[in-house]
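If your schedule permits, I should be very grateful for your opinion on a structural question. I have a record of one protein: its chain in single-letter code and its fold written as discrete structure tokens. Would you kindly read the sequence against the tokens and tell me how you understand this chain to fold? Thank you for your consideration; the sequence and its tokens are set out here.


***
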Amino acid sequence: MLSKETISIIKSTVPVLEVHGTKITTRFYQLLFERHPELLNIFNHANQKHGRQQTALANSVYAAALHIDRLEEIIPIVKKIGHKHRSLGVKAEHYPIVGETLLDAMVEVLGDAATDEILAAWGEAYGVIANAFIGVEKEMYEEAENQAGGWADFREFVVAKKVVESDVITSFYLQPYDGGKIAEFKAGQYVTIKVKPRDSEYTHLRQYSLSDASGKNYYRISVKHENDGVVSSYLHEKVVEGDKVELTAPAGDFVLNTDSEKPVVLIGGGVGVTPMLSMLNTLVEVQPEREVIFIHAAENGAVQAFGKHVEELAGANRQVKNYVVYANPTEADVERGAFDLKGLIDLKWLKAAAGDVAAEADFYFCGPIPFMRVMKQYLAEMGVSDERVYYEFFGPAASLDAVVEAK
């Protein structure tokens, strides 16, 4: 437990963190990699380059300071981050390194404002927060290893099949190299894949949503080829069937609630359709009477993945309604009548698509951050309570509410 004095000091730093948080975390990562370059084998270099990791950490530090007298309120955040840490292989021994470096970054950025009193309070608070993470993650590591078909850390898998799904998305069917069983997973979860391109000094880790239902003898990930994506380019251009990659066991708390019988609305933007597809396939297999509305927004038919599969599922399962939205349909799309809406999803259209189920349905969505901000805003305007809204970020978590409120 933290003393009242420590809590008071930490809360007094909230305005400073609001202004200087990202500067502190940016310097933190610079120091961290200078002192411990081996950690570049864990961190996503692209997120570092684009500042997403720095912003996410700044938001976490700010939230910890804001809620330091009510730490139980950040436990859901701890668990969400814990899933990512376990999936990446973050261990207890990393936390003292992070704590020391974070305090040094505060000193460099804040200068004389970082008094001995403030640093001592933050050191004490960091210890409490770090122990919360370590405890949560210890349980997650044990669960991942001890479950049926589970394993610790990374395990070798073989690319059993590589399937082109669209001009930009390819699926990889991954089976364990040792021929053993693989762990079940919940629809919406992801795996971390580790690769080391020949021209790279470091290994690279990426988390990809599983795009099929559980219970198969493979895991499937469906990867968009990003122009500047080290891992996606390597997977698309270099990896062939028969090659080996390494995976951690499935993780993530963005999961389909199969204990509920409420209608479900699944909304995917671009490659954000992958966890939605896992949920759809799962619903058809294990809850065939549950009403599902599936909405996929894509640029056009050339880049849309799994369109035919979803269309066939909807045709064979009357409880599934399928809607396709193309921002810029091709001539071929127009000729085929392959979409339900041209342009971007708007509030009026979403209300009509959700129909009568909007009043009781659970809504799940995933896609680019601007897409998700708009979806969250629309659902709020439709009167959908937060308890019925679920979404997933690809990469470090950002804030949807902050931007919506700032408009």
